[in-house]
Design goal:
The protein has 35 helices and 34 strands. With about 1000 residues, it is of the alpha+beta class.
Length: about 1000
């Protein structure tokens, strides 16, 4: 039995609740809402908006950092403990100094209106994620005059769903959402998905530094406890997505459903899957509380359990003392990825809200407001601690319980002091521990160690044993890596100064000159992780668009930049003509010239936005003076927006523009001018300014991010009308208005949302649709279906609504939102508004099947709707769906699978690779499915082991496929009365 006991002890540390609660004990209206720990600090956010800061060891109150932004929902202390970042319920992220004597703060509103779910520091960069999938970075610069500091915030990723966890290591960023996990290289500005299989729920991910070097991009041999993972698809173009040597021993762990972890290299290659379901079927271990420790009691549970395993979703995971730590509301999990059998879990605390870890100490925040601190230690370390605390009975009990472990593992020589147990406990116990004590005795070494300098250091076993897990910091690690050339130079200089003082000044000067030359090697360039930047070159307007045959020919010899061309230097006044000339040259060569050159030209010749505007007017006159008439408007407008888009103080400049009527008009006119060549863009609005239904396209206006930010900053109760006026000129911006109004009652924005007829937008608003909202939607859509504007009731003819979104597909959205039964009721109620034949059997069959399936598994509704709608293009699928409905007795289905013919003819039901090999010709569908199954290794049924490839079974509905793609004989499922996928339940 002892061999199966995990060799870890979780000990409860002295209670610090009274100390932590002291500052607010007499103020009942203030409660702690969140907390975070660092090397020496412990910080709590409160409902009052204040941050209460404590020293961690020993725990004592230090200071209160006030805030007026409302209750704090999340906070994080920077690694150097100089800053604390925090956020409130409105999505505002703020960073402040820990030392309030050096005042200053920085904040950004990139998450405004959303819940910030994650905050993590990496050097001076703060990465934040929210509940709509937005990831931002805020990078702090140096404090200026001790009263403020510059910062630059930027949205770097817009992902598909809520951000569950973020981890950072150097330039690498790890982001986990509800469905996927991404690895991002912030220097290369690229990210890619880890693995292929999606998931549905909160799952964490973290970096782990291994002792051995990992080869990125390759897979190692399979371990008996591992399941090899297949190679994944790349999300974004990963050309140049390489990982430096500094990450050679870093791996990624991603939580998966059913108590699993993916292990991947830093470049995103999934190497293997760790399975913990079975080991978590063991009974939970016991925490050594203060009471048990004082009484010297060790409670050992039988680790054997015969349950089917514990299926746990690891919502957050952390690298913690050689294990992967995770927690739920009622349990703590310490997962050993190297030795799965040594995984250990505890259920001592039933009301866990949040956990935070540092070093080997775990802090647990409970629903009753208590903070519990625990230390996880290996058994040998705990044995030394208990021995020196004179807990000899407890020490001997642990030696008995972990006897096999102590005899079979390599132990630290410093555990030899436990030989002293011979004189501390009964002879009967000593006899049973003879072999263990003999091993302890064999580990004894000299009590003193000779250093290189010849000094003997006497061993302090207890302290060294407790601290030997910590990395000793060498001089080289403190001062950074020093090149051989620089080190040799330092040695030569020391010899010169100490032994050659009588040498002439000339020799010393020569030595010093050589020293300076070689000291250049000390300036090792550190590649800071820079946030992902927006593209400077606009997407719609290409170089050919404004350099065609009609472009004017300029005769100046230096129309392009040459080495002899005039350059702008700081504090140098350049003639206005030359400045305009260089700006025009930039516009002609913007594809190959960095935007920083443009910013340098403008910044060195202007002091504020009014002067920038004046410079653009001069540039317009310059273009006309060289006969570039057609470019005289476009070039200044494009340069003006490019300058704003790439400026480090973009938000401040936009604030100035919004508050100045002249600048405001010029900005709006510029946005329209740079997009005027896109004829589609101009036809997307009604005469009244309302957006017309969009043609399904991925095209975006030029400088769309800048324009969106302009609207977001301007949006307030006083400036809404101005925003609407801008949207009338640029109908695309109604998307941004809908985003800003997403928290309003949906009825208020329903006309705009529906008239845009953008399926992506409609999908994002589906959770807000109710039965009453859908009834109003049907009434409005009946009007829109006749090509009539929902705002001014005027008819438009250049866009056909029925060709963009039919009643059938509107019905599919309704089914996903409110279910099949209610969807039929709404359609029946307003049947007089729907033209004959607009709703087909596709809609009715889908309603019926969704009503049946949602009784067992409500999570498959959306996938089921998409599958049935797409498979209806095939005759065989329609027949199988009809059979399925006919065979359903008393409104009960046999399982949550679909016939193979239906599943294979849709990309949404787990057989995408099979679907890709099927043609639309009805005569060949069965053959295509059979061949695709063979090519994709779908061979045998996992329940009976018999082959699946049989055209008779395929044609007669004898094979069934679950949402995950696992395929079985229908007879096997009926015989075992299985409703959910058995393969997924096992794995």
């Amino acid at each position: 039995m002892s061999q199966s006991i995990p060799p870890y002890i979780l000990q409860e540390l002295p209670d610090i609740f009274e100390t932590v609660n002291y500052p607010i004990r007499n103020i009942h209206r203030i409660k702690y809402t969140c907390f975070n720990v660092s090397k020496s600090l412990l910080a709590f956010g409160a409902t009052s908006g204040g941050i209460y800061v404590f020293n961690r060891l020993p725990c004592e109150f230090v200071q209160l950092i006030p805030s007026k932004d409302g209750p704090i929902t999340r906070l994080s202390i920077s690694p150097d403990e100089q800053y604390i970042s925090f956020t409130n319920g409105k999505g505002m992220v703020t960073v402040t100094r820990c030392d309030q004597n050096l005042s200053g703060y920085s904040s950004h509103m990139k998450h405004h209106g959303n819940e910030v779910t994650c905050m993590v520091w990496s050097n001076t960069m703060l990465f934040t994620g929210d509940d709509v999938g937005k990831v931002c970075v805020l990078q702090l610069q140096n404090f200026i005059a001790k009263t403020m500091f510059q910062s630059s915030s930027q949205i770097i990723m817009n992902l598909d769903s809520r951000i569950c966890q973020i981890d950072a290591k150097g330039c690498m960023l790890l982001v986990s959402t509800l469905t996927r996990c991404y690895i991002c290289n912030t220097i290369q500005e690229q990210y890619r998905q880890i693995g292929q299989k999606l998931r549905d729920g909160e799952y964490g991910a973290c970096f782990v530094t291994m002792e051995k070097i990992i080869t990125n991009g390759t897979s190692e041999d399979k371990h008996e406890n591992f399941i090899e993972a297949k190679k994944y698809n790349i999300v974004d173009d990963d050309v140049g997505f390489v990982v430096g040597e500094e990450f050679s021993n870093t791996v990624i762990y991603c939580a998966r459903p059913s108590s699993r972890l993916w292990e991947a290299t830093v470049d995103g290659m999934v190497r293997r899957t760790h399975q913990f379901k079975q080991v978590l079927s063991n009974n939970p271990s016991k925490v050594i509380t203060k009471e048990l420790y004082d009484r010297q009691k060790f409670v050992l549970n039988d680790t054997n359990d015969h349950t089917n395993g514990q299926s746990v979703n690891f919502t957050k995971i952390y690298n913690f003392n050689k294990t992967i730590f995770s927690y739920s509301k009622s349990a703590l999990y310490f997962l050993n990825v190297e030795r799965v059998d040594e995984t250990i879990w505890f259920d001592e605390y039933k009301d866990i809200i949040e956990c935070s870890v540092y070093d080997d100490i775990l802090y647990i925040w409970r629903a009753n407001g208590c903070l519990v601190s625990l230390r996880l230690m290996e058994v040998d370390r705990f044995l030394v601690k208990s021995y020196f605390d004179e807990k000899y009975v407890l020490c001997s009990e642990l030696c008995m319980a972990f006897k096999e472990y102590l005899l079979t593992r390599n132990l630290s020589p410093k555990i030899h002091n436990l030989v002293g147990l011979k004189d501390k406990i009964d002879n009967g116990v000593i006899k049973s521990l003879e072999d263990v004590l003999e091993k302890f005795n064999s580990l004894k070494t000299s009590d003193a160690t000779k250093t290189k300098s010849g000094i003997f250091v006497v061993d302090n076993t207890y302290q060294n044993m407790l601290d030997d897990r910590k990395t000793k910091v060498s001089e080289e690690s403190v001062f950074g890596p020093v090149s051989p050339e620089a080190m040799q130079a330092l040695k030569e200089l020391s010899i010169t100064v100490s032994d050659k003082l009588s040498t002439s000044k000339k020799i010393i000067k020569e030595k010093w000159g050589g020293f300076e030359e070689r000291m250049k090697h000390l300036s090792i360039e550190k590649h800071e992780a820079s946030p992902i930047r927006n593209e400077n070159v606009t997407k719609w307007v290409s170089r050919d668009d404004y350099e065609g045959e009609d472009a004017p020919i300029v005769l100046e010899n230096n129309i392009v930049f040459k080495e002899s061309s005039p350059t702008v230097r700081e504090n140098t006044i350049v003639d206005e003509f030359e400045v305009c000339k260089m700006l025009y040259q930039y516009s002609r060569l913007s594809v190959v010239i960095e935007s920083s050159d443009l910013n340098s030209i403008i910044d060195n010749n202007t002091c504020n936005m009014k002067e920038v505007h004046d410079l653009m007017l001069l540039l317009q006159k310059y273009c006309m003076s060289i006969n570039a008439i057609e470019e005289s408007k476009f070039v200044p407008n494009n340069i003006f927006l490019t300058y704003l888009n790439t400026s480090s103080s973009k938000c401040d400049l936009l604030d100035v523009i919004i508050n100045d009527e002249v600048l405001y008009k010029y900005f709006v006119d510029s946005c329209i001018a740079v997009n005027i060549k896109m004829q589609k863009h101009l036809s997307l609005g009604c005469e009244c300014g309302f957006p017309l239904p969009y043609v399904r396209t991925s095209q975006m206006p030029v400088f769309s991010d800048l324009i969106d930010q302009f609207i977001e900053i301007q949006w307030s109760s006083q400036t809404k009308e101005q925003c609407y006026e801008v949207c009338k000129k640029m109908p695309y911006l109604w998307r941004k208005i809908l985003y800003l109004r997403r928290n309003e009652d949906l009825i208020n924005v329903l006309r705009i949302l529906l008239q845009m007829l953008d399926e992506g937008l409609l999908h994002s608003f589906l959770p807000q649709f109710t039965l009453d909202t859908w009834e109003r939607t049907i009434q409005l859509y009946a009007t829109l279906y006749g090509n009539i504007c929902l705002n001014c009731n005027k008819k438009f003819n250049h866009v056909s609504v029925k060709d963009m979104l039919s009643w059938d597909y509107l019905g599919s959205l309704m089914i996903k939102s409110i279910g099949g039964r209610k969807a039929i009721q709404v359609m029946q109620k307003y049947a007089n508004l729907i033209e004959m034949g607009a709703l087909t059997m596709r809609f009715y069959h889908t309603c019926l099947l969704v009503s049946l399936y949602e009784k067992i598994d409500v999570t498959i509704n959306i996938t089921l709707v998409d599958t049935i709608y797409s498979s209806y293009d095939f005759k065989e699928s329609r027949v199988e769906i009809h059979k399925l409905l006919q065979n359903t007795s008393e409104g009960v289905i046999k399982n949550t699978a679909l016939p193979l013919t239906v599943a294979a003819t849709s990309p949404c039901w787990g057989l995408k690779k099979v679907y890709e090999n099927i043609s639309n010709e009805s005569d060949s569908v069965i053959n295509d499915i059979s061949m695709a199954m063979t090519n994709n290794n779908i061979i045998d049924c996992d329940l009976c082991g018999l082959p699946l490839q049989n055209e008779v079974l395929i044609q007669d509905g004898g094979l069934w496929v679950f949402k995950c793609g696992h395929t079985f004989h229908g007879a096997c499922l009926n015989l075992n009365q299985i409703k959910l996928c058995p393969s997924c339940s096992i794995n």
